[in-house]
Amino acid sequence: MSTVRSRRDQPVPDGAGPEPTPEDASTQHSRIDDPAAGSLEPSAGEAPAASGAGTGWRWILGIGVSAFFLWVAFRQVEDVGRVGEALGRANYAWLIPAVVLYLAGLWVRALRWRALLMPVRKLPLGSLFGILSIGFLVNNVLPARLGEIARAVLVGRRHDVSRSAVLATVVLERIFDGIVMLLFLGVATYAAGGRVGADWLGVLVPLTAAGFGGAAIALGLLALAPTLALGIAARLLAPFPARAREAALAFAAKFITGLGVLGDLKLAAITLATSTLAWLLEAGVYIAVGQAFGMMAEVDGYLLALAVANLGTMIPSSPGYVGTFDALVARSLSIFGVDGALALAYAFLVHISIWLPPTLIGFYYLWRYNLRLSKLTRE
């Protein structure tokens, strides 16, 4: 299937001049701020930055959820001191292949993002890797997944691309990730036989499948019938003031241009393949850390922990998914008979193995691009 594109579907850069109308919202064209400029104000129809008040309540909610899940995690351990003992006995040489595998997966994710952006513009892989690393850094140290917004802002600044279109590609990433995680969950559950209880699957699978499946269908309809989608949106927005209506339609038009990969069978296949490869490499991280503790050799146990923990990141929590990730990994391993203290020690070490590398690399690219984290998040 070839890419479905029309005059309406062409990307619209940031900073469009006059206010767009529903008819020409997706065709206006002007240059955004220079990358070296000191500020980047959102233009009409672009994705707005999170407000300080909104971020504040997300901090409170996230910390509360993380504290609850940490409590759940430690409840699974009879003697907390044994967690430290397990960490003390670990063979940390296994962290070398774990980190190498994770970095390889990060590079594959940059390849995937390049494929997703291809219908909008062909961008250099090295730049996308740097921006992706900064996005991971922001997600790891700040709440509310602000890293996704930061990525859209940076691509817009450095490559003159609509931030709304970039944001659409980030949403697509999450959809493909969810599909792969559900696939891994199915494989792990089948391989584990009856050890994975029906109570888990009865809650986790329907919720995640409905969420990701519904989102995928909605985005597919937007991508394949953009004129129809914008027409329906215009009718639904008719009761609103003209300025708000036109800004919303402009955002929608630009967002739809970022969904172009869904209209190109080859690019969609590349995106699915790179998504699967990236997560297989991350599964290798889980297995390598498991060997540091001399744990089980059953791959299905690690796949289950990977799938459950990453599907669990949909739950709002503090930066870096503290608590939610650890509790879900430890609980997944307990199904395979791993001792609670060992499972929690393993969860902590896996967490630091996938948290620290992108955080350090993200700080390097912040320095290289002469950016400040506080200023970036304000934009």
What does this structure look like?
The chain has 379 residues and is mainly alpha-helical. The chain has one domain (50-378). Helix content is 68%, strand content 0%. The chain has helices spanning 52-75, 81-89, 95-117, 125-141, 146-159, 163-192, 198-224, 226-236, 242-257, 265-292, 299-311, 324-334, 340-368, 373-378. The chain is globular and about 65 Å long.
Outline the secondary-structure elements:
Layout: H1 52-75, H2 81-89, H3 95-117, H4 125-141, H5 146-159, H6 163-192, H7 198-224, H8 226-236, H9 242-257, H10 265-292, H11 299-311, H12 324-334, H13 340-368, H14 373-378
Please supply descriptive tags for the structure shown above:
68% helix, 0% strand
How many helix segments? 14
User: Main beta sheet, described?
Assistant: none
Helix content: 55-70%
Shape: globular
Strand runs, count: 0
Order of helices and strands: HHHHHHHHHHHHHH
Number of domains: 1
How many angstroms separate the termini? 38 Å
- Report the C-alpha radius of gyration, rounded: 22 Å
Mean pLDDT: 81
Structure summary:
The chain has 14 helices and no strands.
